[in-house]
Design goal:
The complex is a heterodimer of chains A (about 300) and B (about 270).
Chain A (H helix, E strand, L loop, with lengths): L2 E12 L2 E7 L2 E3 L3 E5 L6 H8 L7 E6 L2 E2 L5 H5 L2 E4 L11 H12 L7 H7 L15 H13 L5 E5 L7 H17 L3 E6 L2 H7 L2 E6 L2 E7 H8 L2 E5 L3 H11 L3 E5 L2 E5 L4 H10 L6 E5 L3 H14 L1
Parallel strand pairs in A: 4-9, 4-10, 7-8, 8-9
Antiparallel strand pairs in A: 1-2, 1-3, 1-5, 5-6, 10-11, 12-14, 12-15, 13-14
Helix pairs in contact in A: 5-6
Chain B lengths: L1 H13 L1 H28 L5 H7 L4 H18 L2 H7 L4 H35 L6 H28 L3 H26 L4 E8 L2 E8 L6 H13 L1 H10 L7 H23 L4
Antiparallel strand pairs in B: 1-2
Classes of the chains: A alpha/beta (about 300), B mainly alpha (about 270).
């Protein structure tokens, strides 16, 4: 799988404060990569560095395989679109004028596709209304339209739903999914709204205190968050044999622990096991949310 | 770079501040013509049209400081610079394109002023009374000083991310330079001898005595150099046609342009942006 963005032991220091500390992320082509972290975890700093607004103190990163020290990094950025914190919009201008300005900035020979872009983000009928009179959601959507002018294949969105009302959040979510599915744009999206991210992300990177503490695909995460029964057993082989026979989804964690996934009636499940003389020493039923998963991760990293 | 300039001029055309500047320039030119024409009619004064052509230079420093701080300040406040960098424009090109836009806008403002004075002023006040080459030298010096002003205020606007702070510092600097120039003029204009009055046998006696405040030759040289370096000082000397050495003024202006632009590019390249 082609890697679009990779950071290698990225470090950013502001005097004595380490905003990023050996950060390593890997974003595959076609992914919607959800960068999760609480406020001050280093999400925006990471995005600022990737976009060239700040220089890393140590370590580096590559975009489409081009290292950040390479002079060609500016050229590579021409294939990117970004909204960092707030969208870049001249508030005294209309949506169309802002787009025309962006067309000129990226060196487009004409304004082909401008109306389609406005339609894509639902701003076709804003006419002569100045951006200063737009709602937050409209501004965010215009910001995304601006980021799409150069037909990027990598889009960076920093906290795109901050301050939006529920309707605005749905609109942005649908737009992001559309861009990813229809235009095949790889997207890095940072947020601390876990619920929202869980609806769109295909991959996650959990950032805490400037370090990525876990990178995981949505599929693997879903599996981890599935309803599960944790069994502490003496001999896992007998259990495995039984689960294989019954085609029950399971995972051997170690030679004393097995996780069984899926919805099972616990009493019935224990009874079935007993019939086969399979006695577990301990049984725990668990159902994890992304929030719990995140909190456990953060707790784990903080306890390290 | 061409894309940056193209986008910059597109924004300029849509910018309210640019049109305010244009209307101000036209209004100022018409106001000057009107007041001078009234004086000519009322007091039978002889008005030299070339003097009118030079007058705008005394305040253009303040005008540029306001325009640059607000026009470029928006680049930071609305995220324009952040956008340009994130879509792959080099920082040196961003700096230079902004400087070029400011220089051209400032020069256009002066040219517009000149055009109005020429079209309306010459029929009202008569032809230019000094050799045309002298007028061109004076205007050439003004244009180069305008470039120096532009580079100075562009430097400030590109170094400070806060629009309000940029505006306050730029405007204060513009007035500070004017004040500095006036102080230098006062020192240089100090009379060597002053009249002293004394009573001798009940009679008033006047005599010329050496002015204790008369500056030393070194102090005079320092003041003249400061006046020559200071863009406001340059403009006052050009308008008053009092520069001892007119040719040296463009050299100082080019020095300002080179120093502030090269330093600005180096610092802007290292600047951590938010």
């Amino acid at each position: 799988m082609e890697i679009i963005l990779e950071t290698k032991n990225l470090e950013k220091k502001y005097k004595d404060f380490k905003a990023l500390n050996n950060t390593n992320i890997h974003i595959e082509k076609g992914a919607i990569y959800g960068l999760i972290g609480k406020n001050g975890a280093g999400k925006t700093t990471l995005i600022r560095i990737i976009c060239g607004l700040q220089e890393p103190t140590n370590g580096g990163f590559s975009i489409y395989g081009i290292e950040n020290k390479d002079r060609r990094i500016s050229d590579v950025r021409k294939r990117m679109g970004a909204i960092i914190e707030t969208p870049t919009i001249y508030k005294e201008m209309t949506a169309k004028d802002n787009l025309i300005e962006q067309y000129k900035l990226v060196g487009m020979p004409d304004e082909d596709g401008l109306e389609e872009l406005l339609e894509l983000v639902g701003l076709k009928n804003t006419g002569k209304k100045k951006v200063k009179n737009f709602s937050l959601g409209m501004r965010q959507r215009l910001g995304i339209a601006l980021a799409l002018v150069n037909h990027p294949d990598f889009l960076i969105l920093d906290e795109p739903i901050n301050g939006l009302d529920p309707q605005g959040i749905i609109e942005i979510r649908e737009l992001i999914l559309k861009l990813n599915r229809e235009k095949r744009i790889t997207i890095l999206i940072s947020s601390h709204y876990l619920d929202e991210l869980s609806k769109i992300a295909t991959h996650y990177g959990f950032l805490d205190n400037g370090s990525i503490i876990k990178e995981i695909s949505s599929k693997s995460l879903m599996k981890k968050m599935e309803h599960k029964i944790e069994l502490k057993v003496e001999n896992e082989k007998e259990f495995v044999k039984y689960f294989e026979e019954k085609k029950i989804s399971y995972e051997v964690i170690d030679n004393k622990t097995i996780n069984v996934y899926g919805k099972h009636n616990l009493a019935k499940f224990i009874a079935e096991l007993s019939k086969k003389n399979l006695i577990a020493e301990e049984i725990h039923e668990q159902e994890e949310s992304l929030e719990n998963y995140y909190m456990n991760l953060i707790g784990g990293s903080n306890n390290d | 770079m061409i894309n940056l300039l193209n986008a910059g001029f597109t924004r300029l055309k849509k910018n309210k501040l640019f049109w305010i500047l244009t209307i101000f320039t036209i209004g100022l030119a018409l106001f000057m013509i009107y007041t001078q024409y009234s004086d000519m009619k009322k007091y039978k004064e002889v008005i030299e049209v070339e003097q009118l052509m030079l007058n705008y230079s005394t305040i253009i420093g303040v005008v540029i400081s306001i325009f640059v701080s607000l026009f470029l300040g928006i680049e930071y406040s609305d995220g324009g610079i952040r956008n340009k960098i994130s879509i792959g424009h080099k920082r040196i090109n961003i700096y230079l394109s902004n400087l070029i836009i400011i220089v051209i806008t400032s020069l256009l403002s002066y040219l517009l002023f000149l055009m109005i004075i020429t079209i309306i002023g010459i029929p009202l006040f008569g032809n230019i009374t000094i050799p045309i080459s002298s007028l061109f030298s004076l205007l050439g010096c003004i244009f180069i000083t305008i470039v120096a002003y532009s580079s100075l205020y562009t430097f400030i606007a590109m170094m400070i991310s806060n629009k309000t702070i940029t505006a306050v510092i730029s405007i204060m600097l513009a007035f500070g330079m004017m004040m500095g120039a006036l102080i230098c003029f006062r020192v240089l204009d100090t009379q060597k001898y002053i009249q002293s009055a004394s009573m001798v046998n009940g009679e008033m006696k006047f005599e010329e005595v050496l002015n204790p405040k008369y500056p030393s030759e070194t102090k005079k040289k320092v003041c003249q150099t400061l006046l020559d370096i200071n863009p406001a000082g340059q403009m006052f000397q050009i308008v008053g046609r009092s520069a001892p050495n007119l040719k040296v003024l463009p050299l100082y202006s080019l020095g300002i342009l080179f120093t502030f632009t090269s330093t600005g590019i180096v610092l802007f390249n290292k600047k951590e942006l938010k």
